[in-house]
Amino acid sequence: MEIHPKRTSDKAGLPPGTTVYIGSRRDVKLVIKVLIYDKAGADSHVLKGVAELPDIIKLAKGRKMWIDLVGICHIEAVEKIGEIFAIHPLVLEDIANTEQRPKFEEFDDAFFITIKELNYHPVQRILDEKQISLMLGPDYVITFQEENSEIIEEIRKRLTAGVSRTRSRGVDFLAYRFIDSVVDRYFDVIEKIGDDIEGLEEKMIQDVSGKPMRSFQRMRRLLSVLVHAVFPLRESLSRIEKRDNMKTISKDTLPYFRDVYDHSVHIIESVENQRDILGGVIDVYLSYQNNRMNAVMKVLTIIATIFMPLSFFASVYGMNFKFFPELSWRYGYLFFWIFIVCVVLLMIYYFKKKKWLS
Questions:
Q1: 165-212: per-residue pLDDT in tens?
Q2: Is the C or the N end of the chain the one with fewer CB within 10 Å?
């Protein structure tokens, strides 16, 4: 896939509520799937375009409906669905903006939430981020995907295969399943990142080339991305968890959302723990590097100190004076070397006595 840079500046100068796609996945094919279901079963439909949606809505009368749009870069389709379901223009603007932080908005008979699906690739140490927006109404759920999500596909399979508890409940329970599945994926991401941090901790002493430091910085950035995805989601779930009179979420389903909120709190604690561990590993690595540098400088200093008097004596006898008493002495050269060796041994003895040599 060709990656295009995100450009928030594309919205500059446009009035509020203008739907402009801001993201990197501009060549995703538009796919619209509709699932009409009840306790008895589920009927799946793949639409050729948004124009077929009104007829499908008529078929769903009296049953629950899930509309899934893949490819929010197709702004016309997003706007058309917004027109059919009377979605506020500012909500459509948030749907099309993949730089939008996870958020929650409540309306009279609906609520809107955006979440970030994260997938971690340990080999490349890359954190893939996809935005999923969800609109929950009285008898429908609409999901807007930046790119096809494995999580949503798994939920679709479970919903259409055999007896599903989700089919016997309201659409609010389906919305819960989406959010819960994304949050559960965060645990997997944190576990894999934690394993990588432990691996770096084991290798840092052996590798003195500076490569571990670059890996540490990359892991720190990955944890920052995770924090930016989870913290706003916790705020959104907290708003849902504290509401007892929401029209779109029944009292039977509300405890499940509270459970997801508890999971988000646990994830944040885990992320903070990983950040502390990573910070500690970085401090240990820097201390090790400093100690290693100090040891090298210590050796070089001792060598330089030993050679200082030797250089002095060598320079004295290297002067071009005509009369040197030792020059005419037969054993002068031997005496010079004996004297030099004695000076070196005395200095080494002095260094050891002062415990400067380990």
A1: 888 888 999 999 999 999 999 999 888 888 888 887 777 766 666 667
A2: C
Closest CA to 347 of 290, 293, 308: 308
Q: Are 256 and 175 in contact (CB under 8 A)?
A: no
β-strands 111-121, 126-136: how paired?
Answer: antiparallel
Q: Which residues of 11-23 are buried (b: 16+ CB within 10 A; e: fewer)?
A: beeeeeeebebbb
In tens, the pLDDT along 274-302 reads 888 888 878 877 787 788 888 888 888 88
Give the single-character DSSP code of 320. Answer: -
Rg value, the chain, Cα: 34
In Å, how far are 9, 19, 83, 172, 291 from 252, measured between CA atoms? 44, 36, 31, 10, 60
User: 141 near 66, Cβ under 8 Å?
Assistant: yes
Q: Which residues contact 156 (CB under 8 A, 6 or more apart)?
A: 33, 35, 44, 68
Please enumerate in sequence order all residues whose Cβ is within 8 A of that of 157, keeping only pairs 6 or more positions apart, or say none.
none
For 117, 199, 245, 317, the CA distances from 204, given in Å and listed in that order, are 31, 9, 54, 50
Which DSSP symbol is given to 28? P
Strand partners, 121: 126
Mean pLDDT calculated for residue range 52-61: 88
- Phi, psi (deg, nearest 5) at residue 36: -105, 125
Eight-class DSSP state of 209: S
Count of Cβ atoms closer than 10 Å to residue 226 Cβ: 25
pTM across the whole model: 0.76
- H helix runs in 64-210, sequence order: 75-84, 89-96, 150-160, 171-203
DSSP 146: S
Structure tokens at 195: 């394993």
